[in-house]
Amino acid sequence: MRATTPGAHGDAEVLRLLERRLDTGRGAGRHDDGHRLALVVGGGGMRGAYAGGMVHALSDAGLAGAFDEVWGSSAGAFVGTALVLGHGADAARIFADDMTCREFIDPRRFGTRRPMVSLDHLLDHILVHSRPTEWSSLVTSPAELRVLVTRASDLTPHVLSGLPDGPTWKAAMRATASIPLLAGPPVRIGDDEWIDGSVGDPLPVARALRGGATHVLALMTRTVDELAAPPPGTDGRAPLWARSLDRLAPGLGRMAQDTARHGECLSLLTDAAHPDRERAHLLTLAPHTSAGVRGLTTDRARVRRATAIGYETALDALGTVALRAA
């Protein structure tokens, strides 16, 4: 059966599993129905507001505990963490209320010693004072959080999970969002240095399926049209920041651009016969319309509209599941 609500694409069996799990009243880690349900959250800087709205809707529908594992890269990892820790409403509110400020994003810092995106402000101010986050709670979380990072030395994607303590989890969250020049230098965890996870894998649906997920709900931060559109600009040249990244590490600038990062996963999302989808159920939620939000957008009204669009998209897709929780 195909899901046909605006923004929903794929197999409605994912919705049926969510409904059955809601009916049981069991929380994360207590499902014994023989299935493994993964939530995969897309990133993309401030585009994460769309996914934040979707996670808010999932939380309001009582589905925060329905997932066995949560995957995310970059902003998607932060949004997924909010759901795992029971902060679903904050996953939406943080973007417009706390992140649309020059303390967090300031393009005037490009070319200086300070990154355009201040992860210090996010991790040490917003997530301490405005939206307190207890990183050590991830150590014992019944739902497994899997954070994508990219190894700085060879730009290959890797998964961080089962980390031993709160400080290491906090370092992992910094790593999954760090891009030299844009959001800070690589982060050392263990024997390697890591950067933004979405550079190597912006939407780890294939990894979730290969890892044993029988059902996957993927939250996109771009509309279908935006995913299919060519990159902006008419001269074919990469933007200045991307060319600067390529000088630091050949290939990094191309991989860090939105269209380049998502092109490789489109066939998996759109082709029901894709080999990675064999005997598995995949449902994708994409914003039903665009609010004009991009990675570095700080227009508060647009960002707030993006969270509302995400919320509406998820609520429409959930249908009777959401009504039961009302």
UniProtKB/TrEMBL annotation:
Q: Does the keyword Hydrolase apply?
A: yes
Which key words are in the record?
Hydrolase, Lipid degradation, Lipid metabolism
Keyword match Methyltransferase: no
Q: What is this protein called?
A: Patatin-like phospholipase family protein
**Record motif GXSXG, residues:** 72-76
Which residues are in the PNPLA domain? 39-209
Q: Which residues cross the membrane?
A: none
Quote the Pfam families the UniProt record gives.
Patatin (PF01734)
Domain of life according to the entry: Bacteria
Q: Active site located where?
A: S74 (nucleophile), D196 (proton acceptor)
